Amino acid sequence: MEFKFQLPFQLSAEATSFLALFLFLYCLYCLFQQKKRTDTKAKPPQPSGSWPVIGHLHLLGELPHITLGKLADKYGQIFMIKLGIHQALVVSTAEMAKECLGGTNDKVFLNRPQKIFIEHMAYNGAMLGFSQYGQYWREMRKITTIELLSAHRVEILKHVRISEVRSAMKSITVARSESTDMKQWFTDISMNTIVKLISGKSLKKFYQGEEYNRCVKAFRDFFELAGVFVPADALPFLRWFDIGGYEKKMKKAAKEIDHIAQRWLDEHKNRSSNEAQRKLDFMDVMLGIFESGQEKPSKYETDAIIKATCTAMILAAADTTAVTLTWALSLLLNNKEVLKKSQAELDIVVGKERQVEESDLKNLVYLQAVLKETMRLYPAAPLSVPREAISDCIVSGYNIPAGTQLFVNLYKIHRDPLVWENPLDFHPERFLTTNKDYDVRGQSFEFMPFGSGRRICPGISFALSVMQFTLANLLHGFDISIPLDETVDMTEGFGITNLKTTPLEVILTHRLPSNLYNDFTMVVD
């Protein structure tokens, strides 16, 4: 049976042509609108105020995690910003972080953006943490995890941590009549501990006085320069001008750090076999791996790999540990009731007739909560180290092309009022009650001070051991006050880690029997 459609009226040839043209144009309009709606839905929102060429770079003048947090308040939990020729995805909630770092996208956001900083200061990508994802990264992460950062190695090498903390306690016991800059004290402990694990000797055994200060400054410059937005990274044609002088500063700091690492490497190569076997620090281990005939995992020279990996471990461990301990003590001094509770727990668990031992740490649950709350409010890397998508993916229904950079705003996530009650308050008890199930090992996207996913920090066990043991000994051994009983300045500094900008000057008073302070001179070596 054949059906025919027929209009109830007749049209002229001209009218028919006009109707056909109208229908054709209408179809094009519908297709355009559909494409427009699809494109709009497929792309994350983008903040207004983007300038030609530079995009949103001019908006990042203050601390980036603060600026991007304010943009999140206006544009939502996920948005895209333009950084010159690059696009960057910014996520500010646990839900969005989980989509990017967990599930299928865990295999996507694995690269690091190739910046001028990486070329000069990270041995052109040989430094673990700034390496591109691939065989080299997997091999070096495996070596560092097994030989330095595993729970087994952390336990074996605990004598180094004990030695450095006891030595540092001795230094403030001798000078207790004067005020002490705890920011510098924490830096010294962290730096000397990790350097000793890597090279066999603490940094102060290598350098003294002004030379030591210059070394510490070079390591601190690393993190400050890693956090700056270099105009030439966004607009490569500007590199010739070196606006801000950042590349010059990077070359200078990189030269200083490489000189330090080369000195250690030369010393290790010149050791006798018996001496090397007796020491067997991490640099010895790495030399042994490559001297055993094992094929290099990349194009990099062996010396460059060893120096890059060793300095990466020192830089990552020393700075983040010192940053967290400085904020922890600052928060305690501004919250005296929490400080008293912490010391009361130490008096119950340890007592006042002996020093704190590492075996006590598992029973210091309130102290652990204090450190967790510190890392919530002041994560060492508030804006996680940028990642880059290695392939196209979908996040929250939006199409994200390969090459897109990713910023996870931990600072914003950790202060989300939908997750944390009274999020700006320092309240360690929350980790003993409502938020007790939140761990630091990347499984809770609401709380991930060490990151999450395949590129999570491998040194969590080491960092927790150093921070807990150091803070426990300090709070157990001394009553701590601020000169003139002032409030501690909590101004944050600029860099990939947010070190407190001002010193932390305190007065320390003995709170244990005098004979225990004499025991601080019994430093294990």
What are the salient characteristics of this protein?
20 helices, 3-stranded antiparallel sheet, Cytochrome p450, alpha+beta, Uridine Diphospho-n-acetylenolpyruvylglucosamine Reductase, domain 2
Biggest β-sheet: strands ordered side by side in the sheet: 1-2-8-5-3
How would you sum up the major sheet? Answer: 5 strands, mixed
Secondary-structure element series = HHEEHEHHHHEHHHHHHHHHHEEEEHHEEH
User: Looking at the chains present, what oligomeric state does this protein adopt?
Assistant: single chain
Span from first to last CA? 101 Å
Radius of gyration: 28 Å
Helix content: 40-55%
- Number of separate strands: 10
Structural class: alpha+beta
Named CATH topology of the largest domain: Cytochrome p450
Low-confidence parts, pLDDT < 50 over ≥5 residues? 1-11, 29-39
Percentage of residues in DSSP E strands: 5-15%
CATH class of the largest domain: Mainly Alpha
What overall form do the CA principal axes indicate? globular
**Level-2 CATH architecture of the largest domain:** Orthogonal Bundle
State the domain count.
2
For the record, what is the CATH homologous superfamily label of the largest domain?
Cytochrome P450
Given the structure, what is the number of helices? Answer: 20
Mean pLDDT: 87
